[in-house]
Specification:
This protein has 20 helices and no strands. With 512 residues, it is an all-alpha fold. The chain crosses the membrane at residues 20-46, 101-124, 169-196, 219-238, 345-365, 372-392, 398-423, 435-460, 472-491.
Length: 512
């Protein structure tokens, strides 16, 4: 290809055929998201177990449970870290480059996953729960910080590698690994709890409160949390081998010749670029993208209130409608096994298929339609759970509730949960792409914090200052409806080049 006028490397990327390199990038970036989802959601599986181990009250008719403030901290502290990491690493990715920062986030995740499982304390022997909970929350904050960096960097890297025709599917495929991470968390909890249950059988709490939680149960939650380090560690080497994206090198670092050399190797195409700079920084951002940024942040914020509330408190909702037996009728490991089984079933039937429907159809239907339809049906099915809520709690109606609940997850993932991740990686200029994605994602995590802390209190019955599960579901339906309205601020990006969407094409030339 010639070297005059337009940046040839960007034209080559837009028109590139799908190659093995693209699939490698999806797996390497996707394994980060697999780990993110595993680490963020496996905590909800073990919180009941933590309550039984560390908060058992002698003579109580029901098993120990984490106090509301401790439960909120354990569930929500990783989201606080994630929000901080999204802002920090998003900004750093535009300053230092995507590649340099990418390895840092992964090492942070590996170290803190292991450290979370090593949270020190006296276990069942005494010494109080405070040291364990404090150190667990500390390491989960920093685990979240590393996870936060993965959001803007994975999305930006994948969008900058992909061609116009396949960009949506490739970014969605990276994000879809989140579904497998949620599934893996459930399956690991099933296997570990089943193995310990077989080796150390225990009676139900109602039969023998003390013996219902064997001392070895303290190892179970630690093993589940620590295994989150494994997939991240396995992909570290490949992350360090990925070249810097051509769009960063050409448009931000302003070295078009280096960008052409890097992409010639991976795309197996000769790209010859004229010496010179790429894009000069512009000052039109707010005029061109101000409303876009408002749209991406607000939609992600509203979605995550509903999405994380549903995910983190599935176990409470399942118990409320009778899908999981009363806690006192099970041993500690029985309860963990049943919660993990229920959560895995929802993920298998609703969550995972939704992600892959998005991968298959996003470059056909476009982002706007999928997000609009997703928010609409999330609203409809959430109201379908809330309006006849007392009907669902009656014996014999659990199956219908679970199906409806699973469908809301399907439309979250074949809908705004995927598109809110994809669009911010496409519409903003290269020099601010990672930063703006980080801001949008951080708004989402603010929603997750509202969901994880707020829903915890709201879903409690009215006699303990909550509003009950039914009214909480009405609130979540309202969030989804607002998300539908704010979707109209976000433009359709399907089939357009990144430079066309961001305005970088106004400076997409080099001196000749």
């Amino acid at each position: 290809m010639g070297g005059g006028g337009e940046l040839q490397v960007l034209t080559a990327l837009d028109a590139a055929k799908t190659q093995w390199y693209h699939f490698t990038a999806i797996v390497v970036a996707g394994m980060g998201f697999f780990t993110d989802a595993y680490d963020l959601f496996c905590i909800s599986l073990v919180t009941k177990l933590l309550g039984r181990i560390y908060y058992r009250v002698e003579g109580s008719p029901s098993p120990g449970a984490l106090p509301p403030h401790v439960s909120a901290a354990v569930n929500g502290v990783a989201f606080c870290g994630t929000l901080s990491g999204q802002l920090f690493f998003g900004w750093l990715g535009d300053r230092m480059g995507r590649k340099k920062v990418y390895g840092m986030t992964l090492m942070c995740m590996v170290v803190c996953s292991l450290a979370s499982g090593l949270s020190f304390g006296m276990g069942l022997g005494g010494g109080g729960p405070a040291p364990v909970m404090a150190t667990l929350c500390f390491f989960r904050f920093w685990l979240g910080f590393g996870i936060g960096g993965d959001y803007p960097l994975s999305a930006t890297i994948m969008s900058e590698y992909a061609s116009k025709k396949t960009r949506g599917a490739f970014i969605a495929a990276v994000f879809a690994m989140q579904g497998f991470g949620i599934m893996a968390g459930g399956l690991v909890a099933i296997v570990v709890s089943a193995a310990f249950r077989a080796r150390f059988p225990a009676p139900a709490y109602a039969q023998d409160p003390a013996a219902s939680t064997p001392p070895q149960a303290d190892y179970v939650w630690r093993i589940i949390l620590m295994l989150g380090a494994l997939p991240a560690a396995l992909t570290y080497y490949w992350r360090t081998k990925m070249p810097e994206t051509a769009r960063y090198t050409a448009l931000v670092a302003r070295n078009a010749k280096q960008a052409a050399a890097d992409m010639s190797k991976v795309l197996h195409v000769d790209i010859v670029e004229a010496a010179g700079a790429g894009q000069a920084p512009g000052n039109k951002f707010l005029r061109r993208h101000g409303l876009h940024l408002l749209g991406t942040t607000t939609c992600w914020f509203l979605l995550d209130i509903a999405f994380y509330s549903q995910n983190l408190f599935q176990k409470d909702i399942f118990a409320a409608v009778g899908w999981i037996p009363r806690a006192a009728s099970m041993s500690a490991l029985d309860e963990l096994y049943r919660i993990a089984r229920a959560q895995s079933l929802i993920a298998l039937c609703g969550t995972v298929p939704g992600y892959w429907f998005t991968v298959a159809l996003i470059d056909v239907l476009g982002r706007f339609k999928i997000q609009l339809v997703g928010f609409f049906f999330m609203t409809v099915f959430m109201l379908g759970l809330a309006l006849p809520y007392h009907h669902w709690t009656e014996p014999g109606n659990v199956a219908g509730f679970v199906v409806m609940y699973g469908i809301t997850f399907f439309f979250a993932n074949f809908g705004p949960n995927a598109t809110t991740f994809i669009v911010p990686a496409e519409i903003f200029p290269a020099r601010l792409r990672s930063t703006c994605h980080g801001i949008s994602a951080a708004a989402g995590k603010a929603g997750a914090i509202v969901g994880s802390f707020g829903f915890l209190y709201l879903a409690q019955s009215r006699d303990v200052h909550g509003i009950g599960v039914r009214d909480a579901l009405f609130l979540l339906a309202g969030c989804n409806l607002l998300g539908l309205l704010f979707t109209f601020l976000v433009p359709e990006t399907n089939g357009k080049s990144l430079e066309e969407m961001s305005g970088d094409d106004e400076n997409r030339t080099v001196p000749v």
